[in-house]
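cron nightly-structures :: item 1 of 1
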Amino acid sequence: MIFDRKVFREIIQRLFPNIKDGQIQIFDDGWDYVVFVIEGQKAVRFPRRPDYAKKLPVEVAFLNHFGGQFPVSVPKLTLHADKKTCLPYVTYDFIPGVQFKKNVSDTFSKEELRLIASRIGNFLEKLHSLSVNKVKKLGVRQVESLKTWRNKFEKIKTNVFPHISRPEQNWATSIFQNFFTIVQESPIPLTVIHSDIMPEHIIVNPKTHTLSGIIDFGDIEIGDPAYDFAFLAKYGKNFLEWTYENYKQPRDNAFEIRRQFYLDRLVLTNLEHSIEIKNQTMIKRHKAELGAYISRNEG
């Protein structure tokens, strides 16, 4: 079951009966949620599917309990259920800014990037230092990394391999098997993690070139801290190193190897999602991205 965007709009009209389309900004490029921003101030976030809806109470409880401890701005969520449809959703004060996509980061100076990296490092240090036992009591789940990634690989073999070439299949098999070997040899030290530190969840001020906040804690879990650093190298090797400089939590010997795996498998995960939702345009684009990524990293 996929929740209907038409239903979201109906709820927005009930919440804000006098609102006009020109006063609403919609962010619907995420996999999990659709966000409506009213007059640039109040955000209303709806889950796309029932499994995402079930995560909302945990996310709300986590942010209400720990949100004030972070050295960056994070949303303060309020949980609701629509009286007519019983659909759960959250509201919060919108954190103004833009998503920290690569084309945005390219306009920032070296020192501005270094400052943002340092603040992300500070944020991750605090997040990863939270008490696992306290967070578990709020309903945050702990993942079994080896089992989880083995299951994901089986799903990729079933759904993605029929769409890609044999060399691409071999590359995918190689990165997963190498990861499995590493994890078996060096068990992962688990911490509380955000699980979705991606450009759309890093909000920056395009005028001052500063970090505005970190959003969307819907995938909060207890897992591998290296996972939260996976995408940061996309802003350049220096950016990742600057983040590490401001992250004082211990990093085990296999930390960087696992971080690289989490980045590598992203092109496969993107293609898998496109195939799952049967979007032919996205399938074509993500197949091309997979081929290009393998060429760049094996050349």
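cron nightly-structures :: done
Strands lie at 24-27, 33-38, 42-47, 78-81, 88-93, 98-99, 191-193, 202-205, 210-214, 221-223.
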